[in-house]
Description:
Elements: E1 2-12, H1 15-18, H2 25-30, E2 44-49, E3 60-64, H3 72-80, E4 83-91, E5 106-108, E6 111-119, H4 122-131, H5 146-156, H6 163-180, E7 187-194, E8 199-205, E9 214-216, H7 219-225, E10 240-243, E11 254-256, E12 261-266, E13 269-274
Antiparallel strand pairs: 1-4, 1-10, 2-3, 2-4, 5-6, 6-7, 7-8, 8-12, 9-10, 9-11, 12-13
Amino acid sequence: MCRWLAYSGEALKPAVLILDAQHSLVAQSLNSPLGAETVNGDGFGFGWYPEGSTKGSTPALFHSIEPAWHDENLRELTNSVASPLFFGHVRAAGGPPIQQTNCHPFRHENWMFMHNGFLDGFTAMKRDLVFAIDESLFPLIHGTTDSEVFFYLALSLGLQDDPIAAMSAAVRRVEEVGQAKGIRFPMQGTLALSDGETLWAFRYSTAHRSRSLYHSVAIPELREMYPDAARLDVFGDKAKVVVSEPLNDLPGAFVEVEESTVAILNDDGYHHEAFLASDD
């Protein structure tokens, strides 16, 4: 459906990953070997927490319906700002129209969210899911995507207090509604979520055949593996990235996030937890 990346670490010009990497996000928008669609040209989004921002700061967003490879503003912006945590997303529209309000990432206060995948049978489920969203949040939904509805459903279920529990509850609500309507596999996707400090990356689908998801190996480890790789010099020791597919061909540079897993990234590094595993 789409391709995305999320970066956390020392402040970095986003163009390093979005534009300049060997298999950058923009390169993936033109040719995505691991994606369900090869081309992801139905708009894009870029969201970032500005360098020096404090806890609870609101991220900035830039959305466009242009193909990412065609947008000069994206090049200007990602080469001009620096950010310690940013999201990038290129879209292959699966039904909802191509418009800025349908471009990821989505934002609520200091939270950002993006999704690669879909809620199968969303048209049949939409009324029930929207009615489960807190009344105070409903006016904030500006687009028509299943992803934005899912985000606000998770917010309604306590995302700001316990992100993993709320995402779990939102997935279960989608599955309950979908299966009540005869939809066998309602949930599909990889999802990124951040409050500006921690980054959560989820890989889950009802059928347990989710879209691809990887994260980088720790930079100090990579430097030991590739002491002559000058491309690593731009990154600080805390730099880490989660991606739909690897950004380069260096063997061992990226590890796959397992099915039914949430990867949690912060200044302490990485760790993985089971997320709605099949035996839960």
